[in-house]
Structures are given as C-alpha cells and as structure tokens.
Specification:
With 84 residues, the chain is mainly alpha-helical. 42% of the residues lie in helices and 10% in strands. It has a two-stranded antiparallel ribbon.
C-alpha cells in the first residue's frame, strides 16, 4: 500500500485533503493511545516506587538511636533517654 501524503486527496473519496479528513481521525486515536500508555507507565512506576519504599524502610521501634550519651540510659517504654 502506498503511503498517503498530508496534502494528497483522501483515499475515502470525499474530495478533501487527507490531513483534513482521515488523518484527523487517525491522529486522535494515536494521541489517545499515547495518553493511555503514559498513564499506565506512570502508574507502574508509582507502584514500583511504593514497593521499594515500603520494603526498604526500617521499622520504627523504641530501640535506642545510637550509643548512650554519658549519664543516660534508654527507656524502651518511653522511647527516649533518661538520666541515670
């Protein structure tokens, strides 16, 4: 099949140029497909990002945030340092 140029007569016999007849119809469906694919790709990337964030995050417990400062002891019950 020979490629139809934008300014060639439309293949449907309407007498209009291809760009003013069937190219508009075909172009709209192509842009719709591109929009759907963009949304799908963004959705997949968001799902992957959420999985990575939730699987690599450390649980927030009441464990000491590091070595004890001088004269302090960690209280797991309260979640902060206490004086000795």
């Amino acid at each position: 099949m020979e490629k139809i140029g934008r300014n060639d007569p439309c293949h449907c016999g309407s007498g209009k140029k291809y760009k003013n007849c069937h190219q508009k119809i075909n172009g709209e469906s192509d842009s719709r497909k591109k929009g759907v694919m963009t949304v799908v790709i963004i959705g997949i990337l968001l799902i992957i990002a959420a999985i990575v964030i939730f699987t690599t995050s450390t649980p927030t417990g009441n464990s000491a945030p590091g070595p004890a400062p001088a004269g302090k002891v960690w209280s797991e019950e309260h979640g902060h340092w206490h004086n000795i």
